[in-house]
Design goal:
3 helices; single chain; alpha/beta
């Protein structure tokens, strides 16, 4: 496993994937990428992804915001 990608839409339901992603990352030594969209996603996607990573204890995630 090379990378763990977690798509988020701003919902608590989607954020349930963060705990298992963190555990998998630790076990496999794989980086975590959190991603969301500007369209239909959270109001401030950059801040949302940073906060979600912090709350989940994922300190070194890469955060990606899709614009189109």
């Amino acid at each position: 496993m090379k990378t763990i990608i977690v798509p988020l839409d701003g919902s608590e339901f989607a954020e349930r994937a963060l705990g298992p992603a963190r555990a998998l990352s630790a076990r496999a030594g794989a980086p975590v990428v959190l991603m969301t969209s500007r369209i239909g996603g959270p109001e401030d996607p950059d801040t949302y992804l940073a906060d979600a990573a912090r709350r989940a204890g994922i300190g070194d995630s890469k955060n990606v915001v899709i614009s189109d």
